[in-house]
Design a protein that fits this description.
Largest sheet: 5 strands, antiparallel
Radius of gyration: 17 Å
Mean pLDDT: 78
Number of strands: 12
Shape: globular
Distance between the termini: 36 Å
Structural class: alpha+beta
Length: 205
């Protein structure tokens, strides 16, 4: 499905190399990343409204390409969802697979890029991701919560199943994004893991 943003920007094609190529965010596009479990639901909600999508099964993350400096994307904050954009004092890098790579690779084009599928409309994507987070992770708690693992407050609390939580019936247990994967395999992998940072990195200017 073509978007108005697609028509407004110069055409770009992914690298025709033999491996993932690290490319600068903010040159041709910005990107939004989400845990793949959340992205699965968001893609169901978006249907034909999604543009091209990169999936990285190594780190459990999925990426949409969006217009550069999209104001809508900068106006919201969502748990476990990240906006990848060029910053004033550092560049942001994203690993992009060759155009021909499909699901036989760990990193691949889940929705291939083409003339009618490029950038995703951010307004539609934000709504889909909000609903997907509620459906997959659960409603967002009010305010900050303590992470059960590190006992530090987190602005992105994730409900977890902690076996050693003391058996307090009806008491919710939360973890920060870095520690949530330690408690339940049902939860998406952390977006702040060291491995993910290598794939989705930053470089100082």
């Amino acid at each position: 499905m073509a978007t108005s943003t697609t028509q407004a920007l110069p055409w770009w094609t992914p690298p025709n190399t033999e491996d993932v190529e690290v490319l600068p965010v903010g040159k041709w596009w910005d990107a939004i990343s989400a845990p793949t479990a959340v992205a699965d639901r968001a893609l169901e909600l978006l249907g034909a409204g999604s543009g091209a999508v990169i999936q990285d099964d190594t780190y459990g993350k999925t990426y949409w390409l969006i217009g550069i400096d999209t104001s809508t994307a900068r106006s919201w904050r969502m748990r476990q969802v990240r906006i990848l954009t060029e910053l004033a004092d550092e560049g942001t890098l994203l690993g992009v697979p060759p155009a021909s790579w499909g699901a036989e690779h760990q990193t691949y084009w889940r929705i291939p890029l083409g003339p009618d599928r490029y950038l995703t409309d951010t307004n539609h994507l934000v709504r889909a991701l909000r609903q997907a987070l509620d459906d997959v992770v659960g409603p967002e708690p009010d305010g900050r919560q303590l992470c059960y693992r590190c006992q530090l407050p987190t602005d992105e609390p994730i409900p977890v199943d902690a076996e050693d939580s003391g058996g307090d019936f009806g008491k919710a247990t939360y973890a920060c994004p870095a520690h949530a994967p330690l408690y339940s395999k049902r939860r998406p992998r952390s977006l702040t893991s060291a491995g993910a940072a290598e794939h989705e990195g930053r470089r100082r200017r």
